[in-house]
Amino acid sequence: MNQRLIAEIGRTQRLEIINSLKRTRGMSVNELVEKMKMSYMGIKQHCLTLQRDGYLDTWRRPQKMGRPEMVYRLTRRSHDLFHADSHQLTLDLLKSAEEIYGPNAPEKLLYSIFEKKTAALKARAKGDTVAERAKWLANVRDGEGYMSQFVYNHQDGGPRIFECHSPILNLLDRYPIVGRLEQDMFEAVLRTKVRRQMMRNSGLYECAFHFAA
Questions:
Q1: 8 A C-beta contact, residue 56 and residue 202
Q2: Domains of the chain: which residue ranges?
Q3: Is the pLDDT at 5 greater than 80, yes or no?
Q4: Which three-class secondary structure state does DSSP give residue 165?
Q5: What is the spatial distance between Cα 72 and Cα 49, in angstroms, rounded to a whole number?
C-alpha cells in the first residue's frame, strides 16, 4: 500500500469511503450516509476532497423513474491504495527476459509460475463439491488481496467467485495471457469448467469466475 497516498488522504472516513466504493459500481452520497452513519454534508465534503485529489469521479446512474442519480466511483489512481503483488520491477524483469531469451520468454515464465501456484492450491483445496471448493478458493484469494467472495444467486447468473481488486493488475495489463492462466488455475482447483469475465471502467475493476455448481 502506498503510504504517501494514505497520508495524503489523511482521514479514516475518507479511507472508509474508498473501501466502500471499491466493492461497488458507485454509490450516491445518500447511500454512503446510510452505510457510514455520518451527516450528508460530512460525506459530501469528504467526497469533494477525494474528487479534487483525483481519487473519485462522478457519473449519472439511470433511475427507473425520474432524473439520473449522481454517484461517486473510484478513479484508476485509487488502485495504488490497495494491496499489490507486482510492481515495476516485475515488469522490468519480464521485459529483460524477453530481450535476452526472445519474445516468448515472459509467457513461459508466467506459465511456470501459475503452474506451480495451481499445484500448490490443488494440494491444499478443501471441499467435496464445486461450491465448497469455490468458497474455500474465494477465501484464499480474499486473503491474497483480491477482495474475493463466493456468490450464489439463481436469478443473477448462478454461482461465481466475484473479485473487486487485482494485486497484479499492472501485470495483467501488460500480459493479457495472465487472464487465461487465472481461468485455467480456477478450473484446475474447482475441477469444473470456468468462464472468466472482467470489467474495467474508470477505477472500477470487477472480475467474475462463472461455473456450474
A1: no
A2: 3-81, 88-211
A3: no
A4: coil
A5: 12
